[in-house]
Design a protein that fits this description.
This protein is an alpha/beta fold. About 50% of the residues lie in helices and about 15% in strands. It contains eleven helices and nine strands. Strands 1-2-3-4-6-9 form a six-stranded mixed β-sheet, sandwiched between helices. It is globular and about 65 Å long.
Length: about 270
């Protein structure tokens, strides 16, 4: 692929077909600023259809995942007496960003160090796999400052269920990575860097054995399940299966019968 875009708020690393995106504004605890979101979108636009990138890890510099939205940006709306439409447009931009992460065709890993607060917790919830340190801090703090977790609420509820998600949103309770693991917000729990690296490498190794197109179509299929009536899904799933059978499925089945590794297999 061609070079990745230049970003001011993110640091990008590619190794063995895997992209790591580092949130890199430690001065504000890696908060999601307007400029950072623009950087993310420029990267997503470049890689969304790039099958040579098999997966993406999201991680924060200085052992801090993400402290949520940059409140200084929101304050500027207030200071400038922005109207309701300006607030709606900001929220829509944020919502489209979370949706863009959630619908990336590559496998996404969220590594939680330090804290995942408010929108940072929402960002974690958009990922396919979440790895957290046991002592990382989590909280949905929006109601404490008079806001709502509007755009992140579907992803949080999808992760932990409605009852737990509702309680976390309404109480703004702070909890640790251990509890995040217990309620299903995180998939894997680690206590030290060696465990983190081992777990991430295990996931990467497994993903690199899978067909990238099949992974992309499976993610799309899962999204379809959530967004379509059951009677419509059967037809949509039929199309999904047939399209894949006529592409990577041919190579996958041939390699199985011929007892060899398929051409996308990478260790």
């Amino acid at each position: 692929m061609n070079k990745l875009p230049k970003t001011n708020n993110l640091e990008l690393e590619i190794s063995n077909s895997w992209l790591t995106i580092w949130l890199n504004t430690p001065e504000n605890r890696n908060a999601l600023s307007n400029d950072m979101i623009d950087d993310f979108i420029s990267v997503f636009d470049k890689i969304r259809n790039e099958r040579s990138i098999r997966g993406i890890t999201f991680r924060g510099k200085d052992e801090m995942f993400c402290s949520g939205l940059d409140l200084k940006g929101i304050q500027s709306l207030i200071d400038n007496n922005a109207g309701k439409q300006d607030a709606i447009e900001l929220s829509l931009k944020i919502g489209k960003f979370f949706q863009a992460v959630h619908t990336l065709p590559q496998v996404t890993i969220m590594i939680i160090e330090g804290a995942a607060i408010a929108g940072g917790l929402g960002l974690a919830s958009t990922g396919d796999v979440v790895i957290t340190y046991d002592d990382a801090q989590f909280s949905l703090t929006e109601t404490m400052i008079g806001l709502t977790p509007a755009q992140i609420s579907p992803y949080v509820i999808s992760r932990v269920g409605q009852a737990t998600g509702k309680r976390l949103m309404l109480t703004a309770a702070r909890f640790t990575g251990l509890y995040a693991y217990e309620i299903g917000l995180a998939d894997f729990l680690v206590t030290k860097i060696s465990e983190l690296e081992e777990q991430e490498n295990k996931i990467k190794s497994q993903v690199l054995k899978c067909a990238p197109g099949a992974i992309a179509e499976t993610k799309r299929l899962i999204e379809t399940i959530q967004n379509n009536p059951k009677e419509d899904f059967i037809d949509l799933a039929g199309e999904n299966f047939a399209d894949q059978l006529n592409t990577e499925g041919k190579e996958g089945i041939s390699s199985f019968i011929e007892k060899r590794k398929p051409d996308w297999y990478n260790e």
